[in-house]
Putative N-acetylmannosamine-6-phosphate 2-epimerase
Amino acid sequence: MPLTTEDLLTRTAGRLVVSCQAYPGEPMRTPETMARVAQAVVEGGAAAVRVQGLDDVRATVGAVDVPVIGLWKDGDEGVYITPTLRHARAVAEAGAHVVALDATLRPRPDGSTVADLVRMLHEECGVLVMADCDDLSSAVAAAEAGADVVGTTLAGYTGARPRTEGPDLELLRAVTRELAEHPVFAEGRIHTHEQARAALEAGAHAVCVGTAITHPTSLTRWFVDAIGAG
Ligand SMILES: CC(=O)N[C@H](C=O)[C@@H](O)[C@H](O)[C@H](O)COP(=O)(O)O
């Protein structure tokens, strides 16, 4: 049975989504490792997980019983999060319940629009869509295009907004106010419990945390820097 928007929203309301990603060349970058990390965060109470790469999606879908938000990062510049129809279809076929994709207003490499991607994912693949946005206008456009969930994922990474030290709460407030009933996931630079609570207070439907839970190299570096031991 495919996941419905209502199922996703019920399961994630006021809860934590955890992004489990390792980066190219890193020791933890294997699908088996990320699936284990996903299992570990689900044991801790994660309501859904977000994973990158087709093999990670396949491994994780078989390992956890929570919704899996899948994406395919192709490169690290420009539109790289599930950039084309081909990438989006592949993530859906790998088993993701929700496909996350770049929903900024920048042109996509295959000339597709967010509306094209949403239509294909809903009608042909039967999966949900998380729109990774970078500012208010892209969030409004993604909601209008029919994305099931809008995320603040790309705020601070495209030049549309300054890169705030923590989450971009100003944008989050503006998006939740403007979109009213449309669900918004707060994502990006949420590093503390207080920031997670503040994101929910700002109107987020759910909070997605990555680095501060699943990236030991960064966590270690933060401690090393804090004690001046680098
Ligand atoms: C900008 C971009 O490519 N963000 C990616 C999106 O999938 C991931 O690298 C982030 O880790 C994720 O968004 C979670 O954010 P944070 O790790 O800050 O909690």
